[in-house]
Amino acid sequence: MATEAPPPPRNGTETDHGPASPTTEQFIEVQEGAEFGELRRTYRSFAFPLTLAFIAWYLLYVLLSNYAGGFMGTKVFGNINVALILGLGQFLTTFLIAWLYSRHAARRLDPRAEAIRTRMEGDA
Amino acid sequence: MSTPVLLAAGNATTEHRPLIIALFGAFVVATLAITVWAGRQTKSAADFYAGGRQFTGFQNGLAISGDYMSAASFLGIAGAIALFGYDGFLYSIGFLVAWLVALLLVAEPLRNSGRFTMGDVLAYRMRQRPVRTAAGTSTIVVSIFYLLAQMAGAGVLVSLLLGITSDGGKVAIVALVGLLMIVYVTIGGMKGTTWVQMVKAVLLIAGTLLITFLILLKFHFNVSELLGAAATNSGKGAAFLEPGLKYGATATSKLDFLSLGIALVLGTAGLPHILIRFYTVPTAKAARKSVNWAIGIIGAFYLMTIVLGFGAAALLKNSDIVASNKAGNTAAPLAALEIGGGADSTGGAILLAVISAVAFATILAVVAGLTLASSSSFAHDIYANVIRRGKATEKEEVRAARWATVLIGIVSIALGALARDLNVAGLVALAFAVAASANLPTILYSLFWKRFTTQGALWSIYGGLISAVVLVLFSPVVSGKPTSMFKTADFYWFPLENPGLVSIPLGFLLGWLGSILSKEEPDKGKYAELEVKSLTGVGAH
Question: Domains in chain A: how many in total?
Fold first, then answer.
């Protein structure tokens, strides 16, 4: 399969020195190990459902704008209607989700990733 | 084209043209100085493609914002709100929410596992040459569409702001923009481009903040009052504040809006000129930080465009906005003129000049990013890895990238000049649709699906790319309607202006189908490398 030149550390002329790269066998071993499995699960079980959720929420908003004009035009106070509030709600949830993910990543993902990286780069 | 406001704006621009030109000139001189300075420090391939990877998360967040907030989103969204009220605002929501896809799924894995281009990640596990060719093709197509829209827009817009009406003048503007972008990219590489984008982002935010503040001041910081005035002045009443004025007319236009919405939210994380920005920071953590900054800056900016757009609707006559530019692209500059005290006032002229200079800076920063993305991909994916089969030296690669920049610059000047009278605004939405149909499925499968194969990658890239382009070719964007690119021709059969509704699911479907139908066994070792690297950053540099 991989008969052609493999990608990243290719011609070795890049001036910023990277750490020595572990072998493919080491990568497979780590990938199948429990520690990495835990990291993958912690990442995916957070990022995937959250992605589905914000896309669904966004689509709901688009569909409401399209097909529920009457509801969206309901005035809440002054000239502020439901459409505007839901639109600003999209801004708000975007900021909120970015913050939630970053907090999750800093607390749960970074330490695990760091541990695996330090070990692999030390071994190599 | 001879309505009072336009005339007034025209007079203002003619009288105060020296001021506008001085501001344009100041921006050009400052950015050229930055470029020369950055060029002196650009030696290795990592310097040229990735700015040496030494930018901080905040700097890159600013640059991403500068790369992303094109004239289409600055003038286009404000104009769409000024003309269609609420429906104009829908664009900005898609453009913003899209960043979550980049944050949660793409930015960090990409930074950890690639070096210079989108192709680095797509081809990682696959046979290099076919997948790099596909990734390079898709990168160049997306960037050229986007570039063409910006160039043609630049000609129209800058000539309008400077009060130039002759054809020769418009062509000269397009050529000037193209020339500057060639200089920025060939000399300054990614470092120069990044600084130009940061400066532009600061100018854009400052300029928008000023106008937003003045508009809010006029309406006593009461948003409800502003909205009411906009609704009344637009002549459309409460409907102006509700969805439907632009997209609500027919069942087809509603589907079109759905299609656009999906393309916007899924396209951003597949735009090559955005993706390569993640390589300019040292770590995945910094890439995450840069997206967070970008979300904050871009979000705040779009919130201000709401005020700008409704402000323009409240302050200007609808007929004057349309007379100046049918798509409303000059609504924001006209609102600036009005809020500064009107056509004959010095305040108005100064604000108009400021906003014009900001628009000019915006165009230059975005075209530089697009050119860099396409020439990087040409040099790194196609020249170095396909033509030279990975045997090109770093020097040869960077030289190829510089020549590609010159070539792409010349091509886009020519196309931009030819297209200056065509309605090419739709090309930006098309670029998003191609990015979402061809690039995003392939990126996600590559990173997260172990059974993905070379055939799957080729099917999703080419399938998404070709279906999106063909559907647009036979859509009302190109022919058959008064708003089409070619008004007199009529060969359309696909009813929607945006192909995303069909081509995005198709891209995902083909990637899956191509993989399960291929005889090739996925390379287990390569996937282990990619997955472990993408989540941990092992070996990333």
Answer: 1
